Amino acid sequence: MKDQPSPLRETDDDARKLARVLLRSARYAAIAVLDLETGFPFASRVLVATDIDGTPVILVSKLSAHTKALAKDPRASLLTGEPGKGDPLAYPRLTTQCLAEPVERGNAIHERIRTRFLDRHSKAALYIDFPDFLFFRLKPEQASLNGGFGRAYLLDGNDLVIQSAANEAIAAEAAETVRDLVERHPDIAEALAIRLKAPESGPWRICGIDSSGFDMISGDFLLRYEFETLAVDADHICSNMSKVAYSIP
Asked: What are 200-217's pLDDT values in tens digits?
C-alpha cells in the first residue's frame, strides 16, 4: 500500500508572513483551554492585542472559567482569522498553541501591555484596572496555518515572534514616535489606508508599531502591515511607514 502524500506544504516565508498577519491583526480570538474538572477542551472568546515582540496578549477576568483553567494548566490554543462571503473554510486561519504567562501589575511590562491593549481596545478602559482583571501573554510554541484549501503548514513558535534587539527601545519610544510622525504628516493615516486598500469606514489611526510593522484601526476594522525587513529603530519605522504612504506605487 502506497504511503499517502502529506497534506502539509513546506513552510516558506510567505506562509510565515501570512501567519504573523493573521495573529497580529486579530481584535478577538477563540481560545481553547483544558477544563479544570473534566479535562475536556473548553472554548471561549477573548479580546486580543500584541506585546512589542508580537506575542499575543489577552485581558481576562479572574472569575471566568478560562482564566481559572489557565491558572492550573497554562496550555492554550488560539484561533485567529476572519471568514468573508461564501465558504468560511476558503479563508485563512491560524491555530496557535501557546503557554499562558500571567503579567504582574506594577512593572514596566504591565504598563507597556496596558497601553498597547488600550490603543487597540479603547472601550476596555471601563474595566482594565479592575482588581479582578489580569493580562496573560500567550507565548507561541507552535502553530498550524490553513491558508485555504490545499494550503496547510506547520510553524514553530519563533516564526511568530519578533526577534529583534530593538524591541525594548522601540517600545519605550512608541507613543512619541507615532505622535511625531503624525505631526510631520497629518494625513499619513489616511494615506496609508488608501495605499493599503483598507475598508471604507470612519477615520483611521495608527494604533501600534513594532520592529516588524504597524497596526491601524477604524471602528471594528484592524489592519496589520508587515515590513519587508525588521526596523532597527524608531526612525527606521517612520521611514518605512512614510515610504508605504507616499511612494509612487
From this structure: 888 999 999 999 999 999
